[in-house]
Amino acid sequence: MLFRLIRPAIFALDPETAHRLTIRALKLVPHGRPGQAGGPLGTR
Q1: Which of 3, 6, 20, 31 has the maximal Cβ count within 10 Å?
Q2: 37, 43 in Cβ contact below 8 A?
Q3: How much is the pLDDT for 39?
Q4: Nearest-10 Cα torsion for 9, 15, 20, 22
């Protein structure tokens, strides 16, 4: 559903601009190893 709302804006962008924005957005995503199991919600 969200894609249907932003699709017109995405396709209105120049391909190079869209690529640059995608790279910037991916840099904002936290990366690294996922947390260890065994915390308060962990199972035995």
Answers
A1: 20
A2: yes
A3: 64
A4: 60
> pLDDT digits over 12-21, tens only?
999 999 899 9
Q: Buried b vs exposed e over 5-39: b needs ≥16 C-beta within 10 Å?
A: eeeeeeeeeeeeeeeeeeeeeeeeeeeeeeeeeee
21 neighbors 13 (Cβ within 8 angstroms) = yes
Helix/strand/coil for 13: coil
| Number of residues in the chain | 44
pTM score, two decimals? 0.52
Q: How far apart are alpha carbons 19 and 24 in whole angstroms?
A: 9
Token pair of 38, please? Answer: 């065994």
